Amino acid sequence: MRELLRVSAPVDLGAIDPRSTPGLPEATAGEHRKGWAREQVALLGAGLGRRQEMLYATAKAAQERPGPADRPAGRVLLVLQAMDCGGKDGTIKRVAGAMNPLGLHIRSFGPPTPEELRHDFLWRVRRALPPPGYVGIFNRSHYEDVLVARVASLVPEAVWRARYDEINDFERELTDAGVTLVKVLLHISYAEQGARLLERLDDPRKHWKYNPSDIDARARWDDYQAAYAEALSRCATDAAPWFVVPADRKWYRDWAVAHLLKETFDTLALGYPAANFDLGRERERLRAGEAGAGGTGEMNGR
Ligand code: ATP
Ligand code: MG
């Protein structure tokens, strides 16, 4: 999936069908594939959970006994970008939901606060990075500063134009520090966004998700697509690749993102750290303690 969904310059989003399902096995054609994909996400999720635990355990062990040869401890950062209603929240719920909350570091980026505006655009992003051993998820990201900032003219063109290089430098710095970046655009169609916005309007339980400004952004659809295409073209690097996931079909979207994460974990060759104590001696001490406490020398029930 990493090979299939990865994009490189020049990125043409119009050529990627948001309803397509690249990489889905042929055998799953027809009505069953939705159920099949949902089952797979649950299975993949269990594997993601195990890998995340290895990442966490390895970082914890490295912290407890740092050695001179230690590489920077690993962490994974999933960057999710999409138009409104693109499914970032749903993806996080279903894909990240399979992992242990203890090892997750999820951050959402809204309009900058007055304090954030007093700093460089990457300031708040640096503060939101996952610590070593964690899987970070960015619900929107520093890319907003070349997307909404560009389309809504929040800053002069010279400012947002300079940001592509700044982002590449920043992401290079992150990968050098042991962060494995997975940048994903959930690619929905104009029609699908319209349907999802209507759903939000029609369902009182979804009004809290609706924002009248979504319609203003929707009116600038083509400008946003152009801004996305340029951001992906300029910032898809070997160190920090961009993936485009067709996202009109939610079940495919979740399946594809789960696969991207699994394959990313696989590149990290994770494992559990070896014990940093003498196993035999610890067993002996445990046994001695049991005996000393007046027991039979055996653990109850074992
Ligand atoms: P959904 O996709 O479900 O609508 P959302 O990600 O839009 O969810 P919201 O809290 O509704 O979540 O909106 C976040 C808003 O913050 C977006 O409109 C986004 O454009 C805006 N935003 C994020 N980063 C920046 C930024 N750097 N500058 C200006 N606006 C930003
Ligand atoms: Mg929104």
UniProtKB/TrEMBL annotation:
Keyword Ribosomal protein recorded: no
Keyword field: Transferase
Pfam families per UniProt: PPK2
InterPro entries (UniProt xref): P-loop_NTPase, PPK2-rel_1, PPK2-related
GO molecular function: phosphotransferase activity, phosphate group as acceptor
Domain Polyphosphate kinase-2-related intervals: 75-264
Protein name: Polyphosphate:nucleotide phosphotransferase, PPK2 family
GO biological process: polyphosphate metabolic process
The keyword Lyase is annotated on this UniProt entry: no
